[in-house]
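User: I'm putting together notes for a lab meeting next week and I want to include a structural view of one of the chains we've been expressing. I don't have a solved structure, so I'd like a prediction I can at least talk through. The sequence is below, exactly as it appears in our construct file.
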Amino acid sequence: MRDFLPKSLDLNDQSILVTGGTGSFGKQFVATVLARYKPRKLIIYSRDELKQYEMAQQFAADKSSPVRYLIGDVRDRDRLTLAMREVDIVVHSAALKQVPAAEYNPMECLRTNVFGAENVVRAALDCGVKKVIALSTDKAANPVNLYGASKLASDKIFVAANNLSGSIGTRFSVVRYGNVFGSRGSVIPFFQKKINEGARSLPITDPRMTRFWITLQQGVNFVLSCLETMHGGEIFVPRIPSMKITDLAEAMAPGMKHEIVGIRPGEKLHEVMVPEDSGRHTLKLEDRYIIEPDFAFWNREPYKNGGAKPVAEGFIYASNSNDEWLDKEGLRKLLSQSPPVEQAA
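Assistant: Thanks for the context. Below is the predicted structure for the 345-residue chain, given as structure tokens.
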């Protein structure tokens, strides 16, 4: 599998802020940046003081550490503006991500995922941040649930924000990828919990179901590599393998019975990361796709000069029609290389 390592990114002496920085991605991002670079500041912006306390213990903060912890919510524009003063780069990973919770609490989902995105944009412009990269999800492509719809709206906000930067020069881009090994709330920790509890069968929503998979470290590397190459307005999509949900269950618990329970409300049979309508303005590189913005400011020449080519007519990037597949042995290898999965709170 691809590692997505950036080639010449330099974050030394940079001030970086990560919204939702106490999540699975945030912790891996901080560990990676501290291991590879010497940032001036690495600011964790989140609303959970306990998670911040636990994270501070993990990274053993001292007077020389660049890591800072700020309590705040992306719903609070004034607090965001204070937090972004003298910040060079913002990685926006804060979101309400649980599909059932979003369906049951729609306005809360919108306040965080949509209005929060607007607040991040406004604060970044007010503070003259150089680059903002927002984490999205496959569920934003042809959304069938509120979480996906809210992230689609968020993606649109960040792409269009490049029209507003003017002489400020702030650039906004989006990263979109699918299921992550080692993230809270994914099917892998759910299956592992069932196995540890001695279950005699694993619940399978539909035996035809397929999903894209990426490791947590690959996700962090991909974000860093996109920070390195972004011009503003792109939606970056990594080229990663697919796997059938039945193969995933068999790899984790060989020989265990599968219980078919049916697709849940708001769940797709297959994931899509580049819909056909987006394919008409998508470029392909060796390790990623780039969905181009449909705005006058966009210039594709730098990517074409780097070897990017338009995808074929009718192109769709979906987990069931993917040309890269993960088998059971490949999955076991990835699981052995990934950090221990976290259980959802």
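A couple of points you could mention at the meeting. The chain has twelve helices and 17 strands. Residues 15-337 form a domain with the Rossmann fold fold (CATH 3.40.50.720).

User: Perfect, that's what I needed.
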